[in-house]
Design a protein that fits this description.
327 residues, alpha/beta, Nucleotidyltransferase, domain 5, 36% helix, globular, Actin, Chain A, domain 4, five-stranded mixed beta sheet
C-alpha cells in the first residue's frame, strides 16, 4: 500500500487510498465512556446517530473543533479507530504513510498537534497539505502551475479563501463562521420564531437536506413552554431566508482577501473562476453570493465533501506539492 490521504474535518472525516479511492467517509463523532477518551465505543455515523440519545456514563465527542485538534487524547483515539476501519491490518500495514489536510490558516502549534496525533495513532510518516490546495488538486487543478487560482472552502468549523500559484500561497483569509454556525442560527430561529426546541441532528438535517422550492419539511421538537412534543412545517424558501444573512456574513468576510491579491493574478482568477469546496458549497444560493461579492464566476466542486481527501491522496504520488506547500 502506498499510503492514505486523510481529511480530518470538523464535520466529516474522509480517508482515501491511491488504489481504491475514498474508503471511509464518516461524521467526525466518537462515543466514549465519560471521562475516558482512550477507547472508542463507536465512531462515525454510529456515534453521530446517538447524539442527544447517549446513555448515562457515555459521552459524544467531536475530536476536531473549528478545523483543528483541541484535545490530543480524544483525537488520537478517534484517528486510531478511523485507521482500523479504513485500513484494517489484514489488508494494509498498520504503520502506513499518510498525507493529512490542514486548514491553510492553521498555526504551527495546530500543525504540530495534527502530526503528533497521526504518529501516535499508528501512522509512520505524515505529510501536511493545506486543505484548499488538496481540494483544488482533488478537482483536477494543478497547484504547481504558474497560474493563480482561488478556492473557497466552507466546512463545518471554518471557512477559508485561498489564492495560490506555482507552489505558493498568495493570500489566505479565514473565519470561524461555517457550517456549525449556520446550524446554530437555524436552531435559534426555530426556538424564537416557531417556539420549538430541536436537537442538533434535526437542525443539521433541515439545513443540508432542506426541501426544494414548493416542498415542505416537517421538523420535530419540544414546546419549551408546555414540554410537549410538537411538529412544525417549513418550506425551502423560509430556510434559505433564515440562513442567508449568516452566509452573506461569511462571504463578505472572505471577500476581503481580494484586497491582498496581486493585481497580475486577478486576470487568472477572472478567467478561471472561483472554486467552491466543502459542505457549504452545497448550500442554496451560495454560488450566487460568491459571484456577487467576488465578481468572478463560481465553479462548485463535483464532490465538495470528498475532494480534499482525494487531493491529499493524490499528494502521495506528488510529493512535490507537499514539499512546496508545507512551509
Amino acid at each position: 500500500m502506498r499510503g492514505l490521504g486523510i481529511d480530518l474535518g470538523t464535520a466529516n472525516t474522509v480517508v482515501g487510498t491511491p488504489d481504491s479511492g475514498v474508503v471511509l467517509n464518516e461524521p467526525s463523532f466518537m462515543l466514549v465512556k465519560t471521562k475516558d477518551a482512550r477507547h472508542a465505543l463507536a465512531i462515525g455515523a454510529d456515534a453521530r446517530n446517538l447524539l442527544g440519545r447517549t446513555p448515562v456514563g457515555v459521552s459524544s465527542v467531536r475530536p476536531v473543533h473549528d478545523g483543528v485538534i483541541v484535545d490530543l487524547e480524544s483525537a488520537r483515539t478517534f484517528v486510531a479507530a478511523v485507521l482500523d476501519q479504513a485500513a484494517p491490518h489484514r489488508r494494509f500495514s498498520p504503520r502506513a504513510n499518510a498525507v493529512m489536510a490542514v486548514p491553510a490558516g492553521a498555526t504551527p502549534l495546530e500543525r504540530r498537534a495534527l502530526l503528533e496525533v497521526g504518529h501516535e495513532a499508528g501512522l509512520r510518516k505524515v505529510g501536511l497539505v493545506p486543505e484548499p490546495i488538496a481540494g483544488a488538486l482533488g478537482c483536477g487543478v494543478n497547484p504547481m502551475e504558474p497560474r493563480a487560482h482561488l478556492v473557497v472552502d466552507i466546512g463545518g468549523g471554518t471557512s477559508e479563501v485561498t489564492a495560490f500559484c506555482f507552489g505558493g500561497i498568495l493570500t489566505n483569509r479565514s473565519c470561524r463562521l461555517a457550517g456549525d454556525h449556520l446550524t446554530d442560527v437555524l436552531r435559534q430561529y426555530l426556538r424564537t420564531e416557531h417556539k420549538i426546541v430541536v436537537g442538533d441532528l434535526t437542525a443539521e438535517h433541515a439545513k443540508i437536506g432542506g426541501p426544494d422550492d414548493g416542498d415542505s419539511l416537517v421538523v420535530e421538537g419540544i414546546d419549551p413552554v408546555t414540554g410537549h412534543a410538537r411538529l412544525v412545517t417549513l418550506d425551502g424558501e423560509e430556510i434559505a431566508d433564515v440562513l442567508r444573512p449568516a452566509i452573506t456574513e461569511i462571504v463578505q468576510t472572505l471577500a476581503t482577501c481580494l484586497e491582498d491579491l496581486p493585481a497580475q493574478a486577478v486576470g487568472d482568477v477572472m478567467a478561471e473562476g472561483l472554486l467552491a469546496t466543502g459542505g457549504g458549497a452545497m448550500l442554496r444560493g451560495l454560488p450566487q453570493l460568491l459571484e456577487e461579492h467576488f465578481g468572478v464566476g463560481v465553479k462548485v466542486a463535483e464532490n465538495p465533501l470528498t475532494c480534499v481527501a482525494e487531493g491529499a491522496t493524490a499528494c502521495l504520488d506528488h510529493p512535490e506539492v507537499v514539499a512546496a506547500y508545507s512551509s
